[in-house]
Amino acid sequence: MEQQVEAIDDGDDEDQIPRLVNKLADPDTIAQTAQQLFKMLSDAGDGWIEIANHMLQAGAAPHLVKALQGRQGHETDTKDLVLLTYNLLSSDDFPQQCRFQLVKPFVTMLHNRLHEATTVHILSALTNLVFGFHADELGSIQAHIVRSPGTLELLVGLFEASDGPLQSVACFTLSNLASDVDSAPEFLPFLARLSAVVQQHNAGFAEGHLIDDFACSFVKLALNLAAHLEDAGRAKMREHGFVELLLPFLNARHKVGEYVRASLAVADLIGHLEDHKLLVADDLLITEVRKVLEHAIAEEVYAGWKWYLWTPLQGLACLSLNEKNKALIVASGAVERAIDVLRTTDNARAQEFGAKLLGNLSFTEDLTLLAPDVEQILKRLADATSCKRTRDYCLLTLFQISQRRAAQQNAAAPRPMASDSGMVTICFAEPGLSFATALAATASSAGIRVWSLDNAGQTSIAAATQQVEVSRALVACVGSCFKESERCRVQTEYALRVGVPVILAVDGNDQPLDGWVKVCRGTVPACIVDRDHPGPGLQAVVSILESLPTRRGSLSDDDDDTLPLARPAEHTTEGTEALAVAAAATAA
Predict the structure, then answer these.
(1) Whose CA is closest to 152, among 189, 117, 119, 207?
(2) Sign, Cα dihedral of 357, 362, 368, 369
(3) Rounded to an integer, what distance in angstroms lies between the CA atom of residue 130 and that of residue 146?
(4) Cα–Cα distance between 543 and 541 in angstroms, integer?
(5) CB 361 within 8 A of CB 320
(6) Which of 303, 287, 397, 304 is nearest to 342 (CA)?
């Protein structure tokens, strides 16, 4: 327990608990009663949780809520009540509705600026509120706390202005309040201030030799923010130097918890940069992340933390983007554990990141060797999930498995390649539609037939690759989100596999041509299209297309209906003019 109190001789036998709990309703004796109940917990040693549960069964929680709701000052009484409540909140038996009702009085007491020791206990109690709360019942308690007017500003102020235990506890409280997809975005306006405080403190652990409570709490804060923010939020974290602030912990392998948490946070922050040196893992990190996953499955504490099931899966999904990590992840046994999760969990985020991990690995690994029933698991998940990303990852992996099986079956007797339709596939991610439209307009005006861009991202992966197989060529529009698009990667790599010519049309000079795109660029022509003056670059792509020979027997127009999910773009004058207008708009 956190603190010893003076013994009060009013009987501390467990049989007295119901009587004492009822005395919490008496304002004249409430402080003395709170001290007595807390002493019972202190004296119980390792068995204190059973005593706490007995108090809760006797109705302590509603009495404490009512008492704290009426407290605006009364420093001594408030401290005793908060201390007792803080410890009882450690029990899973503390009623959820009462947890929610405690938010307002705790926040009010924080704003009243009580004594530092009492403030530490209030912050600790807020943390225990979060630990024991089940979001499915009443919504996110983290969001409820941080959206209370002025509360996050107050907590960040304590983090900035304090030192010693209060600063560490404030950081720890912030880290737990950031552990929710609804609450994490509320931290975005404060990222610069949080980073500035850590930069000042960083000198002490810059070489990894001083990993104190404050530093440990900061790593948890960084991981929770990186894990719960969307891409734009993670970009803000990178902008404010969070990756650099985490670097000392990547060398602190003697502190396993901080090393793993920092590594996962960095992976989440830079996972979009597949070739980044910090994304390259080793046996130690992959093994530790696998252990985190195993303990999360067992709902056990590991490295001082009880982990969300999806957190290690999210880290593995990011790490699996780097080609050098794939074999390490497979060899570690982590993939089998991830598949075990997908067999049983109904947690949407665990499903999403588990499916993403398998999707990333499916390009190079035969997943059926790791789990013969992986196809059945993914088909079942694809049918059941309401998350489009999860479904897309499942379908991607299923497609890759089917392609690998077909290649193995046809190795001795390859099937004849499909006929060349004379059409060109333009492959793009949805944010690059205007760029793809401009390219299609330029190609059409030169007499090159292009598959329609309408609903290009909505057809199945199988239909999309079928279209590629009968195409004269594939033009990959490397623009925003192209590299992260599984569909774009499948279409491009499939074209290379079946011998369809590939051309990279790069939208501007600032696109990161790394990861799998870098591999493609080493084997196919690439044209940089200047955004201010796109004409010459677009024309360069068309010139390459015009120079391509027909690959094999050309399909007649009557054969176009063999691909019901893909149709040629319209080639009337009206259609070409419409595309030209779109191209001019893009150029402007």
Answers:
(1) 189
(2) negative
(3) 12
(4) 5
(5) yes
(6) 397
